[in-house]
Amino acid sequence: MKILDARGKENAERALRQLTRRAEPDRKVRTAVERIISEVRKGGDVALVKIHNRFALKKIRRNELKIKGKFRAPSAELRRALALAEKN
Asked: Maximum CA pair distance of the chain?
């Protein structure tokens, strides 16, 4: 954890700038991510495999995308806890 030293005017101003700055994603990265999301929405699993194989060392095939096991919806208790956490 980084400790900000706010003693003295100069340090206080530097600490305030660090605390109030907003992270802006690189425009190129944002454009690339938007393009990937669009490709997957349009092309589904085929596009997902193609994109994965473009970036990954271990290539996959479409039939490897199957989720193993059964999917269960989260319990009501977990949904309430997540909703509460989201509000905080």
From this structure: 62
DSSP string, the chain: -------SHHHHHHHHHHHH------HHHHHHHHHHHHHHHHHHHHHHHHHHHHH-SS---GGGGPPPS---PPPHHHHHHHHHHHH-
Considering the entire predicted model, what is its pTM? 0.46
Residue 19 domain-assigned (yes or no) = no
Asked if residue 38 is part of any domain, the answer here is: yes
For the stretch 13-65, pLDDT in tens is 888 887 777 777 788 888 999 999 999 999 998 999 999 999 999 999 888 87
Question: Is the distance from CB of 14 to CB of 27 less than 8 angstroms?
Answer: no
